[in-house]
Structure prediction request, 224 residues.
Amino acid sequence: MIRLVNLCKRYQLGEGVVTALDNFNLQVEKGEYLSVMGPSGSGKSTLLNMLGLLDTVDSGEYWLNDLCMSTLSEEGLAAERNRQIGFVFQAYHLIERMNARENVELPLILTGIPSAQRQKKVDELLDRLGLLDRADHKPHQLSGGQRQRIAIARAVIRRPSLLLADEPTGNLDSHSGTAVIELLEELNAEGITLLIVTHDPAIGERAKRCLRMCDGRLVSDRGG
Ligand code: ADP
Ligand code: MG
Prediction:
């Protein structure tokens, strides 16, 4: 499903250059569950941003479902991102003036699905995730764990094939963190390919396959 060939990404930083991804190679099959660990600055977020088509690489190839991403136009990339990829961030990135239901509905508005059908889809998903009773709450009226679970609902409402989570429990206490991880694992069990970046070894070890990065390189790949 994913094939990365010699991916390189550098950032200019003042006088110097930082190599965030250094000839990174990886293959992931559909439905896999991976964690990505490694010290701060080792390139984990850069990797996830590349996989999520939020940023482009300097060189190398990213194949997603047999399509080479570097051959696509801006519109082509946006279409792939919207159709295939869900992204969850540490800081939730919900829209504060919208309630939970409206936040989850947002990705569907771009699809042209009629309003009544959108509402039905959103409520079904919120119900399944045990969040329907929070649908009318604004983000500031929700706990961190509830916000993250709403952000996950928003990430999967279009049924992407790939779900990327960058330190999704980083702002949560361990109880809410576990609930968030269990939700991600439930979605993986339904077939979505899942990559979680985490600092927490207990979370990292739950994944069937654990990647470890250092200085922009893959230094270990356990269970792959
Ligand atoms: P991690 O998520 O593992 O902490 P990152 O992928 O965020 O690591 O960063 C990898 C390296 O790239 C770090 O040295 C970081 O400072 C650098 N970096 C990341 N994003 C940028 C950017 N937008 N501009 C300059 N340097 C960056
Ligand atoms: Mg990071």
About this structure: The chain has a mean pLDDT of 95. Residues 2-222 form a domain with the Rossmann fold fold (CATH 3.40.50.300).
